[in-house]
């Protein structure tokens, strides 16, 4: 099924329909149709309406989930973009969240995940969804990252955001994912941190072709704990884990104070920074490249990339044409590149 070498097949979940996800998904899939075989997953009638408004020349062709499951994906060629129909429960009003569509949004992800696990898709690319809407629909949901881990039976995954708009490219991985700040310290255990480093090392090699990844690790506390006077996580957990990783031959260093680590002289010597939590690492990357970065979930049995932004309900409410689809283009191109790089490393 896979056409990794030529035109990889990427499942795109169109995300929260009241946000900018459908628009950026259609624009990016259409623009890249010559090199990427995108398969949009969402409400086909709704997507057709948006496509018509963006540009009547855009050609979408819909198939039902049943047809996809029983007969697979027909070859629609590069002149049309396929849509797997996943109908919403209620009419969508741009900018207005409706939890009654929450379960259908989640179903788009389920179709993408099972299709990728069965190798009908080479990778998954997700447009942003509103995490609160899924919860309001009655399903506990903290993020795609955790949901993908659960649905693929993966015990441990790593969230990494990346941009090639800097020199060298900046990659920021996180030791924890979507957690309330009060729960972060307890989640950083020797076991979870060493698993995170192992996954980083493995995926930077297998998916990015970096033979000996150099990983700079932040501390958790201000001034990396100030020798224990501002917290003991560095002394009790991070330093011993880094020592063990170095003993295994990994090129890790730290813990560095997070507020001064992001300087060119350090980043020039690094393939990746591992930050301890969401708002420690991501603001730096988003400041460097917001709207053009990507989010990659490492450690999964499938390739998944996403955009570096959220649903932007404010823009969706204002009408089509306001959102920048640069990050969606980057996420699609990165997924295609990861498909090719992974195939090359496996050979
Ligand atoms: N991968 C995902 O599914 C993600 C989903 N989210 C969800 O998005 C929701 C809203 O998040 P916010 O923190 O408000 O961030 P946001 O990224 O949606 O918006 C923050 C600001 O950036 C602007 N912006 C965002 N994307 C843009 C684009 N493509 N072009 C131009 N301007 C853009 C918005 O107009 C707004 O001013 C959250 O509640 C969260 O659930 C957030 C991040 C990732
Ligand atoms: N800020 C990045 C983010 O929240 C990613 O969330 P998700 O991809 O796990 O849904």
TrEMBL record:
Coiled coil: none annotated. It is found in: Cytoplasm. This is 4-hydroxythreonine-4-phosphate dehydrogenase. A divalent metal cation binds at residues 178, 223, 278. Binds 1 divalent metal cation per subunit. Can use ions such as Zn(2+), Mg(2+) or Co(2+). InterPro entries: PdxA, PdxA_fam. It comes from Glaciimonas immobilis. The lineage of its organism: Bacteria, Pseudomonadati, Pseudomonadota, Betaproteobacteria, Burkholderiales. One of its GO terms (cellular component) is cytoplasm. The gene is pdxA. GO terms for molecular function: 4-hydroxythreonine-4-phosphate dehydrogenase activity; cobalt ion binding; magnesium ion binding; NAD binding; zinc ion binding.
């Amino acid at each position: 099924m896979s056409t990794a070498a030529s035109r990889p097949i990427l499942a795109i979940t169109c995300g929260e329909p009241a946000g900018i996800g459908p628009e950026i998904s259609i624009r990016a899939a259409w623009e890249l149709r010559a090199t990427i075989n995108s398969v949009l997953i969402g409400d086909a009638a709704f997507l057709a309406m948006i496509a018509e408004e963006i540009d009547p020349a855009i050609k979408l062709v819909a198939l039902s989930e049943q047809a996809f499951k029983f007969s697979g994906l027909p070859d629609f060629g590069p002149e049309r973009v396929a849509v797997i129909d996943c109908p919403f429960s209620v009419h969508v009003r741009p900018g207005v969240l409706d939890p009654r569509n929450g379960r259908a949004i989640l179903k788009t992800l389920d179709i993408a995940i099972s299709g990728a696990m069965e190798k009908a898709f080479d990778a998954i690319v997700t447009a942003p969804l509103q995490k609160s809407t899924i919860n309001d629909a009655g399903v506990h949901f903290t993020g795609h990252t955790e949901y993908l881990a659960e649905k693929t039976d993966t015990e441990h995954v790593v969230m990494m955001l990346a941009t090639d708009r800097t020199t060298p490219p900046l990659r920021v991985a996180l030791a924890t994912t979507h957690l309330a700040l009060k729960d972060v310290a307890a989640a950083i255990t020797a076991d979870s941190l060493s698993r995170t480093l192992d996954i980083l090392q493995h995926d930077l090699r297998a998916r990015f072709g970096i033979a000996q990844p150099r990983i700079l690790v932040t501390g958790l506390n201000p001034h990396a704990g100030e020798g224990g006077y501002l917290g003991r996580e560095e002394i009790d957990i991070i330093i011993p884990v880094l020592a063990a990783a170095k003993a295994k031959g990994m090129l890790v260093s730290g813990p560095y104070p997070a507020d001064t680590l992001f300087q060119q002289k350090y980043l020039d010597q690094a393939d990746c920074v591992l930050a301890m939590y969401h708002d420690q690492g991501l603001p730096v990357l988003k400041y460097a490249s917001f709207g053009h970065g990507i989010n990659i979930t490492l450690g999964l049995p499938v390739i998944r990339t996403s955009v570096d932004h959220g649903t932007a309900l404010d823009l969706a409410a204002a009408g089509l044409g306001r959102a920048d689809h640069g990050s969606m283009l980057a996420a699609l191109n990165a997924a295609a590149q990861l498909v090719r790089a992974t195939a090359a490393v496996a050979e």
